[in-house]
Amino acid sequence: MMENRAKAFVTPHTDLGESPLYRAEDDTLHYVDVLSQKINILQLSGNHERRIIDCPEPITFLAFHQDGGYLICSFSSIVHMTDDGHWTVLKQVFSDVTKERLNDAGIDALGRLWVGSIDRVLEKIPKGTPEATRHQPWGCIYRYDTDGTLSVAQQGGVGAGNGLCWSPDGATMYHVDSYFNYVSAYDFDLKFGTISNKRLVVTHNKFDGEFDGLLTDANGDLYTFIWDGGAVIKYSSSGELIRTWDINAARVTHGAWVGSKLDKMIVTTAKRSDSEAGWEGEEAGALFYVPGETFIGLEKHVFGESARNK
Length: 310
Hints:
It comes from Fusarium ambrosium. Belongs to the SMP-30/CGR1 family. This is SMP-30/Gluconolactonase/LRE-like region domain-containing protein. Keywords: Metal-binding, Zinc. By secondary structure, the chain is an all-beta fold. It contains one helix and 24 strands. It has a single domain (7-21, 65-71, 93-290), classed as 6 Propeller (Neuraminidase). The strands form six sheets. Strands 1-24-23-22 form a four-stranded antiparallel β-sheet, with no helix packed on it. Strands 2-3-4-5 form a four-stranded antiparallel β-sheet, with no helix packed on it. The longest helix is centred in the middle third of the chain and has 5 residues, at 130-134. It is globular and about 45 Å long.
């Protein structure tokens, strides 16, 4: 019988855990606490010693930078931060984040950043209302090149850009829109850095909650992390439901492939604020291992580093 309940291995400690990132060289997991403005660095072997780097702003995405440290997205900017916490803004994308802000992102095989944004006007409008139907979402998908150039890869059409990743062959880019609760696929041209032929792969209408983070494995399957749904759900690349895992936390945010063979998955979660009603889960804010099968994960790319040169 398959085991479908994930197990917490680090007790609750994040208000909004997100963007987990694995480094094989020292067997560490790097992940953010968005609301507390912290980067956590967890030693996976041994006694799970944890180090914290404080940040001056909330962080929505974390990747390794070829020059050391991290490539970061804040609400407004793209940032390089060193291991000792020195914060350098590379590109301010928004001067006013009350209408639009950056959110989750990914690094492609040429070391470029792709990041979706959130339409902050739309996110305040209840879903399914006439006002929501009339509103034309102005969230975008941006591409930030290693030479510092920022381009708009998709102008508008995004409600709440979230998880972003690629198929194993790099020919397809996947992107979550949490407001509209679907996963889109695009034809991806690595050489020219363009996306086209948007189509829906998965619409989340059979379970509670919203799509949040997104991963792909070496077989091309998709793993979705369900905010306010307490689950990880696996789909085929054509959108067929394969498997679900239960998480003892309502707000499941993202996952990372870990281990020397990238054959294990760790999941981040979040707590509810004191003013929000509903089931939170006894282990909200904890880290979980997902059991039940041997995964074949994909390595994350480094900003500024071409996978072709490895």
